[in-house]
Amino acid sequence: MWRWWEISFPDFDLDVIYDAYARTNKFTIFKRKNKVVAMDNDGLIRFVDDDFATILQLAINNLTLGRNIKESICVIGDFTVSKTIELDDYMKLIIKGKLKLEDNVDAPMFYANGKSNIEIIGGELDGNGANQTGGGLTRYELALIRFLNVSDVLLKDIYIHDAISEGVLIYPFEWDKNFNIIVDGLKVKRTGGFVSGIDGDHVQFGGCVHLIVKNCIFEKPCSDTSVSINYSRKVLVSNNIINNDGPQAITIAFGSHDVKVSDNIFDTKSAVKIWDDGIQEYNIEIVNNEGIIDDTFTHAYDGPKNVIISDNLVNWDSGWFAFFEEGGENIIINSNVAQRYGPSAAFIELRGVKYSIISNNKFDGIGHGTGAIYLRDYGSNICEYIKIHHNILRNALDEGISLEGGTNNVEVYRNTILNITTPIRDISTGINKIWGNKGYKTENSGVATISAGSTSVEVSHELVSTPSKIVLTPRGNVGAIWVSSRDSSKFTIMCETAPSSDVQVDWMAEV
Description:
Layout: E1 2-3, H1 14-20, E2 27-32, E3 35-40, E4 44-49, H2 52-61, E5 71-76, E6 79-81, E7 85-86, E8 91-96, E9 98-101, E10 110-113, E11 116-121, E12 124-126, H3 139-142, E13 145-148, E14 151-156, E15 159-163, E16 168-171, E17 178-184, E18 187-195, E19 198-199, E20 203-206, E21 208-214, E22 217-222, E23 227-230, E24 233-238, E25 241-244, E26 250-253, E27 257-262, E28 265-268, E29 272-274, E30 282-287, E31 290-293, E32 298-300, E33 305-310, E34 313-316, E35 322-324, E36 328-334, E37 337-340, E38 346-351, E39 353-359, E40 362-364, E41 371-376, E42 384-389, E43 392-394, E44 399-403, E45 408-413, E46 416-418, E47 422-426, E48 433-435, E49 443-450, E50 456-460, E51 469-474, E52 481-486, E53 490-495, E54 503-510
């Protein structure tokens, strides 16, 4: 053990190191010529070695035994990492530089199992994925930051890139294994895809309770998902920028519940996928997000319950804005603004969904897409007890609203449907109510005039199809009066006696 003033380091100002860093940290690690040194907060040089990972591990292992407050280690400068560094309880690692895995390490850079109160703050972590082989390990054994069974963790302001698999992995994939996890201000890019058969998410979580992912930037390339949530509850994913060329930006999977995805900006293939794993997810909010989506904004499997998709602003190319493919209950899709600029699929499609509301959305197909809102069966499960109201649907090629299969007990009312080939189509076997929709009239009324000397008048009824019922009430003497013909656009009124002056006829028509 040496005091720094007893060692000659002529090319480095140790007074600066001590005053700026070592005084306030348990250990400060920096480079002197070809050596890595660790100085303690008394100004003692405690460890000297050629290998950075060895020095950092020695510093971690020599934090105060039995501590219950965090002690900090500050790393200054750029280093290569030759082996996995195991973190401990009640420690803060502050990185002011770049750490890069050496070639063929084929292991995580940081690992913790069963630890609590860990912080990693700042720095650049380079996984050097192009120069790793995988060593026959799985993606989950190779994550750059790999934590299991941890609690009270903060990862903040770290730039992670070129990881052979996951940038960050906190798991196992079981319920209630990790608690109080905060990921704040990370920038992550290039994860997975370096070795055949090994993909990688930007960040992946399993078994977390109280998880926050916020203020991060997730950039392509990414071989898989930006934020993957599994077996987790009480989760917030908020205020992130996600630019992902993998299959989806966010997955909510394996029964995860009480999850909120809000205020994110997307430029990605698909934004949120509620995963197809046979376990029902529930209590999910997807709100106040915006972005450009190449495929589908929200794609849900497994019949999720209690899902709110609200106040999102989205432009997208193909696929759906919201697609519930395998049923669901208590789905609210409300106050979204969506515009598509490519063909295929629809604005919203529900299959076998019950007890749900689609309201106050604005959809513009810009002349593309198969239609706006579709309700269909999922196997033997039908759509029922759904309200569709006060939506504005414009410029699609086929149907505005289509009720199909066994769809039953659905109310469609007060929607505005413009420039859509078939505004509303009900070909279901159920009993549904359709009324008061602009652009789709099922009932209308007006006044026609039989001119003096004439015994007929043609009336345009403006209904969606041929009326089944027409009621006539003349305001003058024309003898018997009846409808002689009708079709999808008009009907003709006939009278027995031609009036000597014009006579008005009140009419009401219903489909």
